[in-house]
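WARN retry 2 of 3 for item q-0093 after timeout on previous attempt; input resubmitted unchanged.
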Amino acid sequence: MAKFLQVPTFDIYDEELDQWARADQWWTEGELVYQSDLSDENDELYLITVPSRFETDLASIPKFPPGLRTVLIRNGHHRIAAVLHDYLCRLKTFPRRTADKMFLEAMHLRGVKKVKRYLMYFAVAINTHRLIILGKAK
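OK item q-0093 returned
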């Protein structure tokens, strides 16, 4: 069964750099550890560890169409799933489609309502398709 084994907190102040972050910049305070129900070609379940101090924007939600951003980010239950997705996309060792599926799976675990999680999933899936066509993702 998919589950979060460890969930970090977030901070907008970087003590190492002694600076405040931008509004869209956060750091994880501790590791995020996630066990997925998805598996690799050897049927090994994915175990993902996002390192402490990973920089994230929490969720890259476009400003268009107007009002959608406000509806999607309202309760923030999606944020841990978004951090996981950010990490997988930057790591580039997983196909983007796998990262997108883990994002959907993780949002479900965090209690994101079905309509909202599918809106967010299809938004990232459409972007993934665009990046694959442009040759910027696999």
